[in-house]
Amino acid sequence: MRKPHNMARPISRRPFIQAAASAGLGLAMAPAIIGRAQAAPVKLRLSSSQANDPKFANGRVYYDNLIKHLKADGLSEQIDVAFFPDNQLGQEIDVINSVKLGVIDLMVSGSSISANLVPLVGTFDLGYLFDSFPQQTKAFNAGAAKPIEEALLKGANIRIISWAYNFGSRSVFAKKPVHEPADLAGLKIRTLPNPVITECLRLMGAAATPLAMGEIYTALQAGVLDGLEHDPPTLVASKFYETVKFYSLTKHNFSPLAIYMSNQNLQRIETKLRDRFLDSAQAAAIETRAHGLAVEQEAIAVLKEKGVTVNECNREAFQKRVAVQSENFIKARPESKPIIEAIRSTTV
After folding, report:
1. Of 168, 187, 176, 151, residue with least CA distance to 256
2. Residues 6 or more apart from 240 whose CB is under 8 A from it?
3. What is the pTM of this model?
4. Phi, psi angle pair for 261, to nearest 5°
5. How many separate domains does the chain show?
6. By three-state DSSP, how is residue 150 classified?
7. Are residues 145 and 202 in the same domain?
8. Could you tell me if 192 and 146 lie in one domain?
9. What is the largest CA-CA distance in the chain?
10. What CATH code is carried by the domain that includes residue 178?
11. By the 8 A CB rule, do 204 and 181 touch?
12. pLDDT tens, position by position, 60-92
């Protein structure tokens, strides 16, 4: 029986390679053509609520460091990370829920935002819990962060793939100087939409007002807010100095910076590639910590240049007022007690 004239016939390897060469593909391309096709790169989206500032915004700084380490580790062709600053993917409370659902892969933000999903994370937001960022890292390396990481993974399917620092301790930035708790009376101070931080500022004496990051500037302009609490580089990156002019160094919170990742999306990455990616993410975090420590004082200098008055305050008075917060938190969440004790027993 005659074979149909259009039946496909096997093509020998030699003519195929010759055809590839004559078409300008070159012999170097031939193995890729005749062998298994190269896998498409893993595409990840990373969200940050902060401005796209390569010096003063922690999200951008972390992203730049991550890209640098992915290249150095030979992963840039296999893992493609796209950066979305300025709340481009939504306000933080929406983004952290999207990370939980696997809609967004990565998020750089303070630990505070995830306390809305897993309340135990709010342990790190307790007023005057940490004395410094180096103390924080020492405590985390000794295991103080492990129960928080496990609770977030179990309760929200979110992995913290590395820890960095917010770029400086959080202090009060307002329309008038604050020296004592009484100076905060009646001032509407923006806090993260997080009950623990809100309670901290309330105990300090302020009319604590939770608000999304993307709404702060216009609220300050309109007089809806009298100020906010944040670190110096964020104030510079977001240009909040254009609205209020007094920065009082309460230093009530050394907020950890978390790099969150959807666990289900992380597990989709092939094991060896995943491990190398996590190594790069950790290296980027370490470098981001060093940058944060160096840039805090530089940011304070910029604030002064912009007409902001920076003043010390009676931190002991604020600490005394806030002390009851940790006691109440432990009563409500006994599992937080060993975490708090581990942190407070850590010295540098």
Report:
1. 168
2. 173, 216, 217, 220, 228, 230, 234
3. 0.84
4. -145, 140
5. 2
6. helix
7. no
8. no
9. 101
10. 3.40.190.170
11. yes
12. 999 999 999 999 999 999 999 999 999 999 999
